[in-house]
Every structure is written in structure tokens, then in C-alpha cells.
Amino acid sequence: MSLLETTDLVKRYPVRHRLTRRRIGEVSAVDGVSLGVERGETLGLVGESGCGKSTVGRLLTRLDTPTSGQVRFEGRDLGPLSEDELRPVRRDLQIVFQDPFSSLNPRHTVRQLLSAPFRYQGLEPTEPVEDLLKRVGLKPEHASRYPHEFSGGQAQRIGIARALALRPKVVVCDEPVSALDVSVQAQILNLLRDLQDELGLSYVFIAHDLGAVRQVSTRVAVMYLGVVVETADRDALFGHAAHPYTHALLSAVPVPDPDLERGRERIVLRGDPPSPLNPPSGCRFRTRCPKAAEVCAAERPVLREIAPGHLVACHFPEERTP
Amino acid sequence: MTTVAVPVVAVPVAGPLRRLLRQPSAAVALAVVVLLVLMAVAAPLLVWTSPTDFDSAAVDPALGGLPRGALGGISAEHPLGVEPVSGRDVLARIVHGARVSLLIAVLATAVSVVVGTALGLAAGFFGGVVDAVVGRVMDLLMSFPSLIFMIALISAVPGANRELLLVLVLGGFGWPYVGRIVRGQAMVLARGEFVAAARALGAPRRALLLREVLPNLTAPVLVVATMSIPGYIATEAGLSFLGVGVRPPTPSWGQMIASAVPWYAADPAYFLIPGGFLFATVLAFNVLGDAVRDVLDPRSVRR
Amino acid sequence: MTLLSVRGLTVEFASGVRAVDGLDLDVEAGRVLGVVGESGSGKSVTSLAVLGLLRDARVSGAIEFAGQDLLSLPPRALRALRGDRMAMVFQDPLSCLNPYYPVAFQIAEAYRAHRRASRRAAHALAVRMLERVGIPEAERRARSYPHEFSGGMRQRVMIAMALCLEPDLLVADEPTTALDVTVQAQVLDLLRDLRERSGTAIMLITHDMGVVAGLADDVVVMHGGRRVEAGPVREVFHSPATAYTRGLLECVPRVDGPLPHRLPTVEVP
Amino acid sequence: MILYTARRLAGAAGILLVICALTFAVFYLMPADPAQGACGKACSPERIAQIRATLGLDQPLPTQFAAYVGGIVAGRTYGSLECGFPCLGFSFQTNQPVWDALTSRLPTSVSIAAGAAVLWLLVGCTAGVVAALRRGTVWDRAAMMAALGGVSLPIYLTALLSQYVLVVQLGWLPYPREVALTDDPVGWFQSMLMPWCTLAMLYAGVYARITRSEVLENLGRDYVRTARAKGLPEVTVVRRHALRPALMPVVTIFGMDLGALLGGALITESVYGLPGVGKLAADAINSSDQPVILGVTLFAAAFVVLANVAVDLVYALLDPRVRTA
Amino acid sequence: QGGSGEAVRGGTLHVLASTDLEHLDPARNYVTSSQNVARLIYRTLTTVAPKPGQAGGEIVPDLATDTGKPSDGAKTWTFTLKDGVKFEDGQPITSRDVKYGVERSFAPDLPEGAPYARMWLEGGENYKGPYENPEGLASVQTPDDKTIVFHLNRPVADFGSAASLPLFAPVPREQDTGVGYDGRPVSSGPYKIEKFEPKKRLELVRNVHWDPKTDDVRKGLPDRVVLELNLDPAVVDQRLVAGQGEDAEALAMEPIGAATVGRVVNDPALKNRLVSGESINTRFLTLNTRRAPLDNVKVRQAIAYALDKDALRTVRGGPIAGDLATTLLPPVLAGYAADDQFPSPDGKGDVAKARALLAEAGLAQGFPVTLDAPSTPGGKAQGEAVQAALARVGITVTINAISPSAFYSTIANTAQIHDMAIDGWTPDWAGPSTYLPLIFDSRLITSEGNNNHSQYHSDAVNKRLDEIAALSDPAAAATAYGELSRQIARDVPVVPFLWDKAAILVGPKVAGAYGHIAYVGRVDLATVGLRK
Ligand SMILES: Nc1ncnc2c1ncn2[C@@H]1O[C@H](COP(=O)(O)OP(=O)(O)OP(=O)(O)O)[C@@H](O)[C@H]1O
Ligand SMILES: Nc1ncnc2c1ncn2[C@@H]1O[C@H](COP(=O)(O)OP(=O)(O)OP(=O)(O)O)[C@@H](O)[C@H]1O
Ligand SMILES: [Mg+2]
Ligand SMILES: [Mg+2]
Ligand code: NI
């Protein structure tokens, strides 16, 4: 049993006309995602913009209710729980957002922000605000400041401190470094790693930056247009990607080495990701896939295990070259 | 390791009031408003003449009650002249009228702000049915030809306390304008990440509304509040002008201007004086409201 | 031949912020200069200064473009150069396109600002440009509005607009930052291709060392409005002269190569 | 789109129905008894009762309301009296169907509203654009101060003052009176000039401020920078890329203001004594002519509600993002 | 006075009115200003003489050859129509048309008119007008086209005067449009309606079928008469003061406002254009005799002393607006006898006497009352004047402002009238018979539509009223009414404060204008014309 897992998670959002407010369709943001996070591991979730990563993150923390499918935490289905019943669960299940400034209430001081978890849970603070600040590398005297008085990296540290205040078991990090400068990114990635070592946390690490995912994850899931197309251990994925999309993705990331970068064999995909408003039939990647065949339009590929712990949803996966 | 902490820029955040006073026009406007408020509060101490006492010696019945003397009967006894026909002291009426105008405007603003914030917050935060219902009510109220309806409504209940009725009617028709702004803001805030973060921490709804969203509404609410006071002053005066304001002999600026209408050619001072006061007051509040918005509204700061 | 030469460029804003502080850089004709640096290092301000698009700012130093000193040029003459001999592509293609006009109109507008052409001819040119930047069904899509395009397509439109007068210099400020990696790869390919075909010099501003590595011939590293390091790409990347540049290169987690337990962080010069 | 328009119109009708009901209820609360009013100086109780029956005032309120709404849709009768479609009631004080009273006064209101609207749009938008382009200069400050002043001037004050100065003191203009444009264009213009200016002064300030802030906001937009980077002349940049988008909110507010104004510029018409819809309302309120007040309220509300619908549709036509969404 | 020079035929006369014409339908026309206008359009059996001053009170024949022949102890009245009288379409006017006009005043659809036909005609209580009872009213007989006979249920000495009321105008049955007739009554007088927009404008043009030879009253001088209605009173004054353009040929319907008085009085040219007309109207403060403490006659007398009549007159424009009233009947009305039971210097009130009377009544410390006043600016100003005057003796007055159109019906409702009301009375013709009996007879008090606003009750007064009504000599009756009014005044059901005068401004080209007492001092429109 995984610590946190999902089965066939589906989330659709209605789409309304801008003027008439009529429902003109549905975005299928997440369409049948099954994932699992084990104790102490970091699951990386990558994919392009709009593929449903954040939606998965919100569903995992029950900030959104799934259209169908299950989210189970320690074996308990979170679906039918009311907000009051969820409250104790939330102690173990926290989230860190992308934009540190918009995730911190600008009207609250750091002290208020960091004591809110205890207040909302109706608990006595177990850890002074000063200690929390120290843990994430900030100074105790920062407690009386407001968020706008911090830099982006510092603010993100506050967000992390808040998520950790209740000593959760799982933290969902939704693009925690995307909004930050490269140098600060490294600091935050290091901090996350340190905290994991210290507290034995599990992370769900959402990012579109493959390098960052590789840096922190133990396992990685690749999403495309609402579905997971490939999951594998980090090394397996970065070493032997089996899905054509994963391949393309990896080859598209520019490498900061002029010789390597110029000499590299590149797979440049055609076109843009299709709209999740009416996703293609069958395999969702087929419209851009260099290997697409007739079967891809007709049949939706399911996740198959091609090697232990390596699952791919493709009719024509790459051969695993050892 | 060699991490360099990014230096935190100490932004010199001057207090909003200081920033406000740095604009000369706003400082003047604030001074005018403070003076007016003082004048209204201290009305009985300021002028000894009663605003309702007739002074038949100050007017000439043979000339139809025209004030004796130049400029509407300005004299040592009546520094701003007298009302034609009755000879009542204009200064006394102006000063007492300020009380009525300001009190009604402030209370009406309070009503519209409280109702508008509460309903706008609920609509923006909860969305769905609440939003639909509140939205409809706001649409409805804003579609009313409110001036006509207000007059009809006020004349429909002749026995009621006029001041209270005015406050309720003005506030009742005014809250949708607050509500609309609050609703929009609340909607954005409710979808914002810090609210999601609070939810993830298990915050009950009440806390989300009152602790997370509400404090972030103070700036826009304060802005609409200051911006709506002059509107209410003008509307109250307008209603008094149309004869449905406060009941005589309680003085009110609108009433004074209304009763000056037949006299505008014979005794122009009689409409220019209360008119000037009304204009100055509304202008001062408008300038002030503008400045408050500049200071508090991030949109205008950004430019 | 040096197409653009910037010497001692200093930009100071009314608020007292000195965004660029004595910057020197050169763009050679037909070559790509990468300008890298962290956020706030003054990259965008530099590019705007070059095109004379800064308002409310004091600009000093010298900017020489094809032998003309841009800073002393009268506004009319500068405007005549802008869009014609030097063009610009910005970071966010959605906000940079006017939502009220069809894309072809906006391209044709750029053309008609500098060349006498009938509406019809300008439109035809716009369609040709759209085809050239790889927009399928260009004839039909020409009449669409920006919001009907995807991010990558919009950036192609911006590039088409910049290139319709075949400028000598293209200033591209983070042209791929707002795009997904797969789309970024397409746009970078397009830029590479265009340069090879037209020989336009490019000043490519980015914070992504990988993008510079892939496209630029020369590189300037900026920090705090100053030049930290400059030189041919290969030289700078293989043997960075400053710890700052090295830090920038190493602090980015890569998809290849060794995996450190902790990432090195940048040291500010 | 057609369906949407139909739905909006139905919604508008719904709002009007509610407004109608509320107004109706308020009149029911009014102490003035229309039957007593209609009965006049010498009136016996029996006669009042007779009149009450003729007017249907003895019926329960819902029945009266149903009869009223029915009258709007299909016309009705009061005793021996015919009140044809659309019957907004019948004034027993003027012996006129309310609809006729309204339509006979509409031309005056339209004259006032249309002329004032043209004036304030011209003045307000121009001042706003100039202020935005010359931001921070004396021009800007003067325009914005003037705008605030205009907004702060109560309309009856402006009206009285202008009448005192222009008519009484200087004699440059005649007293405003009702003149049909077709009868005497010069007289019409002379009569309307003051009301136009009075109204325009109030609104121009609002429009100047909106235009200024919108133009400023748009001038700061990225696409304006793009336009400049293209080397477009500044005039084109401003006109095409800053002004055009800035006009959208102006159009929205204009539609609503005009809608509200067509329902009668109550104070303006009263002060100048021009027999428009607003004066009709003011007189009706003064004489407690309830059917007329009810009718004017509905009529004015209809303009506002329809203006709302129209504004949304125009918005859809002007904004490609909405049009094709 | 009234514009110099000779009035000649032709031109367009403009009438600037700040009020509306309430009704033009003869069955409903019961307001003096509408009656003044209606005299241009239709003729009645008799009418008032076209003369200034008290002479205007005289009743003269109009459609009829005389002012009516009474018989059967004044219970039967016979009128004969003149020859050659025609409607605007050329049809001759017959006695049936007059009968039909009278019958229409019974129709419930046509309320508001004078009540005399309904009160006096035999069988009137069961008759519902020609729409419901087309067979007609038997007590009005038309033996031939020229003769009309009225059978009354009581002797009425001045039925001939009543016959001057509009309900005695002819209405052709075929052209009766019911309620719609109000907008377009058929003309029998010198002018017919060309265009009528209620509350806006009435345009009259010549009725070519009116034969001046049949009419000794109307002159019919202007070719057209245009009334602009519902104007702002201040604007009317300003326009006439300026007197330019069309306004040179205009006259005001209403007296000048207080604000214009100063201007006119100080300018000889303007003063020359001022027409001052006496009026049969008396203004008074009604005291509700049924409400404590006003049920105490001492309190009412105290109020009579305390009232500042001069202030009230100043509100209305000062001395130009009339004389301070000391009696109920004004001097221009037959039966007037000089008297002043509550004298005070300059009419400003006698506070000491008032206080003494209040002390006698045990109310030395004063008391609160509510005053009903019309919500017009004038009404409110009068209210405030009463308020200020009574405050001097400790009476605190709350003003209850009532919309002008609802004002009289409100104070005519015994449940709705408060302690006091700004009030007044204009008799229906220039005689006292429609004065005291209508407003002080306690037997006529009804819950709604009551004219005895003070709800004054005195058996002695009732008895005396019956005795006077039985007198067949109008002159003797007038004297008796005058004496009775002194008796009533002692009980103070009302405090008269002003005998109205109307100061009316006319344009420089207007000639032959004089104020008619029956039209409460307004310019007699039937005779006014323009100069060359
Ligand atoms: N509340 C919502 N209402 C409607 N559509 C939504 C909503 N939230 C997300 N979507 C849509 O669902 C899809 C997936 O969105 P999501 O935010 O999960 O993507 P993402 O992978 O996190 O993208 P990014 O990298 O840009 O953050 C998108 O097409 C988005 O437009
Ligand atoms: N209009 C302006 N007024 C004042 N300061 C400005 C203005 N524009 C830019 N700056 C400041 O100039 C500095 C450089 O900004 P610039 O936009 O050039 O950075 P950048 O290198 O492009 O960063 P990024 O990677 O975030 O785009 C920053 O500190 C910024 O705050
Ligand atoms: Mg996301
Ligand atoms: Mg930049
Ligand atoms: Ni270290």
C-alpha cells in the first residue's frame, strides 16, 4: 500500500462562453491518472503547460474534488470526506505553491502565517515560529515582517516552513522553483532535499523543468494532456525513456554546453499540444508523434510495465537498450 | 557552501497618511473636510442664532420679502445674509445643514459599505447560487431609475423619520456599487493561492472569509467608501432639492438651494452661498477620495 | 564588421534605480550575441535602450548602429530605423500582440510604416511571412486574432512581424521563456534557420545558458547592470573567467551528466 | 448569438417585471388615494367608492397587479375607458394614457440626452486623451482638476448658475423651452444648449477621467511597446493601439449612462422646465399621479435594462476575444 | 393699468401658466383657472359680468336670454336659449344639448365637477348619468329646442348664479367621447381647440360659427390663444419681466412670485404692466375643533392672537398679495361687514393676549400640534411661518407636507386631517351662499370628501344657516350671512389671514386686461386682447 495513491483520477472542468456564460464544453484536465507515492520517496511529475500537473496536485491535497476516481491516503479514500473530516488528514498532507507571493496572505505577518497551521487545526503550537524560520534558513527576527518585505527565494522558504509546521508526511510541491531565478532555484532545491533527509518526508514534485525533476526525484511520471504516458525510476527514465514524448521532451531541453548542444540529435515535435477541450482520440500524443500509426487513433494505449517499475502507455515504445 | 543571501531591499514605506498629505491638493481637501466636520459637530457652539428664528426686520415685505441690504442682507448680525421672506440667518442654516448632510452621507456610506461588503464577499467567495442571487439583486437595484424610485418611496412613507429613511434608501440603492467591486475582488482572492494554502491547512470557511479574504478587501472598500461620500452628499442635497429630503424647518443645503430657485434672479447670493458650500464640500471629498485611491489602489500605484 | 556597438551604456530611472551601469557590448553582422544574466540584471533595459524605447529614463553612453549614433539621432530618424533595420521580439507574445486586430494586419502595419505599399500588397506579404515562419494554412490564419493562436504560433507571428522588413539586427528578449520546451525547440530551430537564410544578426537575451549554448556565437554575461564576462560562446562556457559565470553554469540542474547530491550555488562578483 | 440575445431580453423582461412589482407595491403603500385625488373638491364617500371601483382599486393587490401587467401586454379598459397596447396605466389627472404622455415627451428627452452625450463624449474623451498623453504636465493637472470640479458641481447648481449668467444677466440665450428640431432648428439649438452643457459638464469629467486612466493603462501595455518597436508614427501608436482598446470601457459606461439619461434627466428638465420624461416624472411625483410615476419608472428602467443588453452585445461585436470565444 | 392702449382684433395671445388646466370637460371643470380658460371655449346658461372689482360678481345671461325665471317658490327654474347660437361644426345649440351636459355631471366616470346638479335636481340621488341611464333625468325638461326647465328638490334663490358653472354648458350627445371629452370639448364659444397636450400646451383658434352678436360678454379679440402650461413660476416671471419677442404678447396666468415683487415695484415700466385684481378668495388656517387641545375655544382664540398674519402675507409676496384678513367674507363679497375680533399691531399677532388665553386654558407651557400643508415651496413656507409664529407662545408645530394634488382630499378626510391646516375658501360664485353653508354646517361632515375641515359643530349656526337658505331675497341673505360670520368667527374654527389679491404681469402689447374677482383676480381671458 502506497502512502498516497490515486486510481483512475479524472477531473473535468466546464468551459463557459465568455459572454453568454453558457457551457460550451469541458476541459478534461486529468483523465484517468493512477499514481502512488511511497514513504520517503519523491515522485516527480513533469509535462508541458496545461497537461494537468497542478490539477493532480490539487486533487491529491483535496483542494479540488475529483470528477471520478479515488485519492487514498494511508489506504483511506479521501473522496467522501467532508471538510471537517478532512481536517486531521490535512496535517499529514501539505502543499507548496509556485508563486511564493500569491500563496502568502499579504496582510499577515510571518508570525501569523506560520502560526496559522496550528490555529486552523485547533492545536497548541508545537514549534516556535523562530525555530521554523531557522529550519528553512531564515532569521528569527524576520517573524514580524510582511511577505512583500522578502525576496522571492525567502518568501518561498516561508511557504515551505508553513507547509512543514504540522510535520506532514507528504508535501506536494507544485512548481516550487519555477518562479525563481536560477541561482535561487538551486538553493530551494537543496533546502527541499535537506528537509527530506532530516524529516523523512515524501514529496510529490511537480515541475516542467526536467533538470529540476531529475535533481530531486526518485521516481518520475511524465504527463501529456491529462494522462500519464510514462513512469519509471529516475535513472531509468532519464537513461532509457520509452515513450516517444519523453524522448522528444528530453531532447528538447537545451544543454549548457555549446559542443554537446550543437552536435545533439534533436527530435523536434511538430505543432503544439492539442487543446484539452477536445483531445484526440486514441493515443493523445498521436497528433505530434513521429511514430503514429492507424492503431494510435483507434485505441487508447494503457500503461504497461515494460521493465520492473517502468510503465509506458504507447503502442510503439522504444526498445530498452541496456 | 557559498550561498549568498539576497539582500532584502528595505523599501521605505511611508505611512499612507503621509503619502496622502504629500499631495498638496489632497492636503487642502483633507483640511476642508476636517473643517466641515468640526463645523458640523460644533454647530450649536459656533452660531448663536437659531436656524429657525424668523427676523422680519431683516426683510422688506413691500418688496416681496427681499432681504434688506446688499448681497442677500449680509450684515454684522447676519454674516452670510438672511433667507428672503423669513429673514432666517443663512450662516446658522448652513452650519446646521452641514450636520444633516454629513451625517446622512456618512451613515449611508456605512450602510452601503457594510451591506455591500457582506453580500459582495459572500457572492464572490461562495459563487454558485449565492453569487447568482446576489448578482441578480444587484442588477435589479442598478437598473432602477433610482432617483425617481427614491422620491416615490420617500413620499410613500410620509410619517417615517426622514433622516433614517434617507440613510436607508441611499444605502439600499448604493450598496450594489460596493458589492460589485467587493465581489470581483473576493472572487479573485478566493481563487488565490493563499486561500488554497489556508484550505490545505484545514482552515474552516469562517476563517477563510474573515481572516484570509476580508483583510485584503480593506483597501478597495476604503477607496469606494471615500469615493461614495461625495455622491451621497450630492444625492441627499438633490433629494432635498426635489422636496423629499429632510423635513422643514430642519435646514439642509439642498433645501436651501431649492428654495432659492425662485429667487435666483432677485437674490443670487441666496443660492450662491449654499451652492458654494455644497460644491466645496463635494469637491473636497472627491479630491480626497481620488487621493486615497491613488495611495491605496495598487493599480494606480503601478502606473 | 560590428553592426551594433554599445559603449558605457548607463540607464538610470526616475526612481533612482540604475538598471544598466556602464555596459559595453558588440553585435557583429550576421552573428548571434547571447546576453545572459539573472533576473533584474538589466538585460531587457539594455535591449529597450538599443531600440530607443525607454521612456522616463536617463540614457547615457554611446550606442552605435551601422555607423550612426542612436542616442543623438532625432526621434524621426530613430523611428525610421526601428522596425526597418532593427526589429525586436519580446518575451510574452500574447500581451505583445494587440488583441483587437488580426495578425496579418499587425504584420502589414509594420511593413506599411516603412514602405509604400497598398493594403492588399502588404497583406499578401504578411501571409508570405506567416508561411515562412511555419504557420500552416497561412492564408486562412492571417485573418485570425491573436487569442486564436497558441503560444508558439504567437511567437512565430511576432517573429514574422519583426522580420518582414528583413532587418539587419533582431533583438530577441527571452523569445522562448514563456514557451514549453518542445515549442521552445521549434522556435529556436526557426531562429537558427532564419539566421542561416537571411544573415540577420541577432541579439538574443535569455537567462537560459542552454539556449545560448545552442544558438549564440558570442556571449555577454550581465550582473547588476554590468558586464561580468564576454567572449565567444565556446570559450566562455568551457573556461569561464569568473566564479559568477561558472556558478550560473553549474547551479542549473541538467538532464544529462553527473548528479550532485546538492547543487552548487552562485557567487556574486 | 440570436439565442443569447433572446435570453438576455427575456432576463431584461424579468427584471422589469420585478421592478414593476416593487414599484407597484410602493404605490400601494402611498397614503394618497388616487380615487380621492380624482374626485376633486366636492366629493361624497359614495362617489369615491364608485371611482374606486372604476379604477379597480377595490380589487386585491395581486389582481390589480395582474391587470396592470396584462394591460402592458394587451391593453385594458378602465370602466368605459380604453387604454390600448401598451397600456402603462392611465392618468386620471391628465386624462391621458401614460404611454401617450411618455411618447409625447420623449423627443425632448432624446434631444437633451443625445446632444449632451455628443458634447460630453467630445469634450471628455479629448480632455482624457490629452491628459494621458501629457501626463504629469499642467495640462493633465488642469484637465483632471476641471474634471473633478465638473463631477462635483450639483447639476441644479450649474443649471441655476448658467441660467442666471447667460439668460438673466447677459441675455445671450433665451429661456429654454420646448422647440421641435423640425420646426425651428435655431430655437431648438438655443433652448437645448444650456441643458446640454449642464449635463455634459457633469459627465465630461467622468469620461475624461476614465479615458485618461484607460489610455494610460493601454499606453503601458506590451502591445504599445511592440507598435513603437515596429517604428509606427506616434499618432498611429496612440490612435490604433492605445485609444481603440481604451474606448471599450468608455463604450460600456456610455451605453449605461445614455440608457439612464433617456429615462429622463429629472433634475435638468425640472430646473429648466423642459417638458421631457424627467419633468413628467417630477410633476407626477409632486402631484402624486401614481400611474404616471409607475409608468415612468418602468419606462426608464426599460431603457437602462435594454442599454445593458445592448452594451454587452456591442462589446461582443467590438472585442474579437468575446466574438469568437 | 393692465397695459395701456386699445385692444384690437387679431394676433396671437400667449398665456404663460405655471399650473396645469385640471379639466376642460364641462362636467368636471371646477377650478377657477380652468373655468376662466373654458369661458373662451364654451358658453353656459349664464355667466359672470366681464367687469373689474365687485361688479364682476354680477350674473348676466349667456346662452340664455336671461338669468332664469324662478317659479314654484324658486323650486322650478326656466331658461330660454338665444337664437343663432351654434357649436363649432355649425349645428345649432338646443336645450337638449344643455340637458345632456347637465346629465353628464352625474356620471361616475366624470368626477370632480360641481355638485349642485346632483344636490338640487329632483331624483338626482338615483341618477347615474347618461352612460348608465340613457333615458335621462326627468327633472330636466326640454319642452322645445329653446326652452329648458329644471325641477329642484328645494328652493334655490340663486340657481341663476349656479347656471354660470361649466356643467351648464351644452354638450352634443353625438360628439361626447366620455372621458376623452376632457381633451377636446366641443366649442360653443369664440375659440375651439386646435391642439391640447396636457401639462404642456393648449392652442385655441377661432370658432367661425360663434356669432359675436349673440354674445355680450366675450370679445374674442385675438386670432389665436396659446397657453403654455406647467412652466416654472420663476421662469414665467422672468419672461414677462423681459417681455421680449412672443412674450410681449403674453400674460401670466398666475400672480407674480414674491421674488419678483421687488423688481416690479421698483420699476415704473413694469409696474405699469401689473394688473392687480381683487379676489373672492379668503385664506385661513383651519383648526380641527375635534382634536384636543384645539377643542378648547380659548386655545383656538389664543392661536388667532398668536398668528403672524403679516409673515404669512410676506411669504406670498407682501402687501401686493392682498390685505390682511380680519373676517371670513372678503370685502368684495356681498354681505361683508368690517370687523376684527383678534386685533394686533400690523397683524403680527398679540403674543401677550395669546399667552394669557393659553394660561386660562391651563396650557401656559404650550403644547405640540401638527400642521397639514401642501408640499409646494409656498405651502412649506407658510407652514414655517405658522411654525415660527406659534413658537412664540410655546406651541411647537410639526409640518406635515402633503403633495398638492392629495392635499385637499387628505384634509377632507376626517381621519387624516391633523390639528391644523393651511386652508382657504373660494365660493363658487361671487355670493356668500356657497361659502358658510358649505364649510360650517356640521350636518355635512362626512368621513371623506368633507368640506367642513375644522369639523365645526354648532346647532345654533346650523339652524341659522337653514333660515338664511329659505330667504328668497339674495340681498337679505347676504346681510344675514355677514352677521352669521361674526358669530362663527368668535368660535374660531378657522383663523382668516389673507384676502387675496392677484398681481399679474402682462406683456407690453397686451391690452384690456383686468383681474376678475370670480377668477380669483386672474386676468379675464374672455375680454383681453392685443394692442396694435
Ligand atoms: N478551475 C479550472 N477551470 C477550468 N479549467 C481549468 C481549471 N483549472 C485548470 N483548468 C484547465 O485544465 C488544464 C490543466 O491545467 P493545470 O493547471 O492542471 O495544468 P499544469 O500542467 O499545471 O500547467 P502549468 O504548467 O501551466 O502550470 C488546462 O487546460 C487548464 O486550462
Ligand atoms: N520603468 C522602470 N522604472 C524603474 N526601474 C525599472 C524600470 N524597468 C526596469 N527597471 C529596473 O531595472 C532593473 C533591470 O531590469 P530588466 O528588466 O532589464 O531586467 P532583466 O535582466 O530583463 O530581468 P528579467 O530576466 O526578469 O527579464 C531591475 O532592477 C528593474 O527593477
Ligand atoms: Mg500548474
Ligand atoms: Mg527581461
Ligand atoms: Ni557551501
From TrEMBL, chain A:
SUPFAM superfamilies on file: P-loop containing nucleoside triphosphate hydrolases
Residue ranges constituting the ABC transporter domain according to the UniProt record: 4-250
Annotated keywords: ATP-binding, Nucleotide-binding, Transport
Highest taxon, organism lineage: Bacteria
InterPro entries associated with the record: AAA+_ATPase, ABC_transp_ATP-bind, ABC_transporter-like_ATP-bd, ABC_transporter-like_CS, Oligopep_ABC_C, P-loop_NTPase
Protein name: Oligopeptide/dipeptide ABC transporter ATP-binding protein
Record family assignment: Belongs to the ABC transporter superfamily.
Any one GO BP annotation for this protein: peptide transport
Organism: Saccharothrix variisporea
Lineage: Bacteria, Bacillati, Actinomycetota, Actinomycetes, Pseudonocardiales
PANTHER family: D,D-DIPEPTIDE TRANSPORT ATP-BINDING PROTEIN DDPF-RELATED, TRANSPORT ATP-BINDING PROTEIN
GO terms of molecular function: ATP binding; ATP hydrolysis activity
UniProtKB/TrEMBL annotation, chain B:
Locations listed in the record: Cell membrane
ABC transmembrane type-1 domain ranges (all copies): 98-289
Membrane topology: Multi-pass membrane protein
Keywords, sorted A to Z: Cell membrane, Membrane, Transmembrane, Transmembrane helix, Transport
A biological process from GO: transmembrane transport
Gene3D superfamilies recorded: MetI-like
Protein name, UniProt field: Peptide/nickel transport system permease protein
UniProtKB/TrEMBL annotation, chain C:
GO biological process, one term: peptide transport
Organism superkingdom: Bacteria
Cell location: Cell membrane
Record domain ABC transporter: where: 4-249
Primary location: membrane
GO cellular component term, pick one: plasma membrane
Keyword Transmembrane among record annotations: no
Pfam families in UniProt: ABC_tran, oligo_HPY
Coiled coil: none
Record keywords, A-Z: ATP-binding, Cell membrane, Membrane, Nucleotide-binding, Transport
Membrane topology annotation: Peripheral membrane protein
Gene3D superfamilies, A to Z: P-loop containing nucleotide triphosphate hydrolases
A molecular function (GO) term: ATP hydrolysis activity
Family of this protein: Belongs to the ABC transporter superfamily.
Protein's name in the database: Peptide/nickel transport system ATP-binding protein
Source organism of this protein record: Saccharothrix variisporea
UniProtKB/TrEMBL annotation, chain D:
Topology versus the membrane: Multi-pass membrane protein
GO biological process, one term: transmembrane transport
Gene Ontology CC: one annotated term: plasma membrane
PROSITE patterns, per database record: ABC_TM1
Chief location bin: membrane
Taxonomy, superkingdom: Bacteria
Subcellular location: Cell membrane
Stretches that traverse the bilayer: 9-30, 112-133, 145-166, 186-206, 246-272, 292-318
Alphabetized UniProt keyword annotations: Cell membrane, Membrane, Transmembrane, Transmembrane helix, Transport
Keyword Transmembrane helix: yes
ABC transmembrane type-1 domain mapped to chain residues: 106-315
Recorded family membership: Belongs to the binding-protein-dependent transport system permease family.
PANTHER family: DIPEPTIDE TRANSPORT SYSTEM PERMEASE PROTEIN DPPB-RELATED
Name listed for the protein in its UniProt record: Peptide/nickel transport system permease protein
Organism in which the protein naturally occurs: Saccharothrix variisporea
Lineage per the UniProt record: Bacteria, Bacillati, Actinomycetota, Actinomycetes, Pseudonocardiales
